[in-house]
Amino acid sequence: MPSRKYADGEVVMGRWPGSVLYYEVQVTSYDDVAHLYTVKYKDGTELALKESDIRSQSSFKHRKSQSSSSSPSRRSTSRSRSRSPGRPGRGRRRSSSQSREHKDDKKKTIQETSLALPAVLTLFKPSENNTKRYNGEPENTEKNDTSCIILEQKLKPDMEIKHFEQYSLRSRKDEKKKDEIYSEKKIFTTVKTIEKAPSKTKELEFGGRIGTFMLIFLLPATVFYLLLMCKQDDPSLMNFPPLPALESLWETRVFGIFVLWFFLQALFYLLPIGKVVEGLPLSNGKKLQYRINGFYAFIFTAAAIGILLYFQFELHYLYDHFMQFAVSAAAFSLALSIYLYIRSLKAPEEELAPGGNSGYFIYDFFTGHELNPRIGNFDLKYFCELRPGLIGWVVINLAMLLAEMKIHNLSMPSLSMILVNSFQLLYVVDALWNEEAILTTMDITHDGFGFMLAFGDLVWVPFVYSLQAFYLVGHPTVISWPAAAAITIVNCVGYYIFRSANSQKNNFRRNPADPKLANLKFIPTATGKGLLVTGWWGFVRHPNYLGDIIMALAWSLPCGFNHILPYFYVIYFICLLVHREARDEHHCKQKYGLAWERYCQRVPYRIFPYIY
């Protein structure tokens, strides 16, 4: 095993991933397995770097002394012939060659969009006082020797943040300060892609190994408990339901129907319709391609259900065997999770999930070891996120509506059932219509595909999110038209906040330079991304979560107030989003450093304005 070269606390020069710039960093820790150093930049950003990307400060000072040793007469001769006054000891032909070489390298660097240089670094202009500029306007690249790139943006004075100390990788005669920069020609010729090796997951979530082990059993038990409670005449919390016989929970025909449903959605996913888009850059700089056809799959599913109803297929079969369907979905998700973990053991290191690479079997099995498991071009995680479970949720709601009409001999469904179906249908259609937006979520960019997402997508979403409709079948609730109008307004307000906030975020992530977003202010960060401080994101830090909670309340209100069971979804959603918010806070603080602290000062409320 190679020995460690740099000690904890040592101040060294670290190369920014994807660039040729070195910055003063401090070593905080070392991973003996991955052989990576965790370093901390001056703005608080922490990254994992290879030993080859770290150099001692003395090596830079050594190059400086070598550069200064050139004879004055040689520098004078070079200065009279060279185009670049800041580059001593170069003739005309060498200067022209390196100028062309520098332009080619700069074009390659600009194309590295996934881990771009900090947006706050402007083009570095060589001058007597070595001044750093921050004005959003690029310098004349034909006249200035530069190693930086810039994200053009119109910045306000109040958006400025503390920058890194910047180092150029070329020696300059007039540089006298400590923050001078030096480079070697081979760095320019070899840097083509972003080099960022994955590291082991150090901070474990969900209670670590013990917590994830318990959740593997607790999540299915919660689903079955809720469904059994809804079947009771008195679904109060103190009235624990009797456990059914084990043989009654399994039916091979039901399992076959579920598997058929899963592969039918897979067939719709594989149809060559809809546009193909690229996801966000991965850690290695690559971008995966995704076919956006979820809304088409929904239309085809609706047509298939319509055909079944035309031929008098009794869709309320779902209601009669609801528990068996939930057990079948849980069994399928468990089998899928086992397959995902086994295949992840052979996956390359760069394809492992940042949050599911702890080295602990239970934890990685639960959170997901591989980031984007694919069979050819078939992305398993992306498919399960929106297709079988989300569309299945709508089908289950429809089955509950028909079951209510049959059981209670109604000519049309109740107003409460209509509201629940309509609100949740809008939510699903919106998700499928804006399918591309999911590519920027943490589920896709950060979380691996393991038991947590497999069970959540295939079991929790369709069988827990449809809890209100399932409850109304056995516990009909009558509401007045004014009450229905008020509940509709609540849902519309929540939906408006949810959709407009997500649209602002997704559009800004995709193209910050879009003229339509010119009115949005943001705080630039060291990663090249900006933190919005206007619009909904200047109101609270997670306005999309606020919209989600308001909508969840509107979905439960049609069930009345006789029992708390229909409001489980609201309670669960608040707990889930508070957990996600805390997770996002921790992640963003590590990622954005001082910029995130400034953003939190600017936007103090997390989800609920003036409350939390």
UniProtKB/TrEMBL annotation:
Its EC number is 1.3.1.70. It is found in: Cytoplasm; Endoplasmic reticulum membrane; Nucleus inner membrane. Residues 76-95 have a biased composition (Basic residues). Residues 66-75 have a biased composition (Low complexity). GO terms for cellular component: endoplasmic reticulum membrane; nuclear inner membrane. It catalyses: 4,4-dimethyl-8,14-cholestadien-3beta-ol + NADPH + H(+) = 4,4-dimethyl-5alpha-cholest-8-en-3beta-ol + NADP(+); 4,4-dimethyl-5alpha-cholesta-8,24-dien-3beta-ol + NADP(+) = 4,4-dimethyl-5alpha-cholesta-8,14,24-trien-3beta-ol + NADPH + H(+); 5alpha-cholest-8,14-dien-3beta-ol + NADPH + H(+) = 5alpha-cholest-8-en-3beta-ol + NADP(+). The keyword rRNA-binding does not apply. This is Delta(14)-sterol reductase LBR. It comes from Tyrannus savana (Fork-tailed flycatcher).
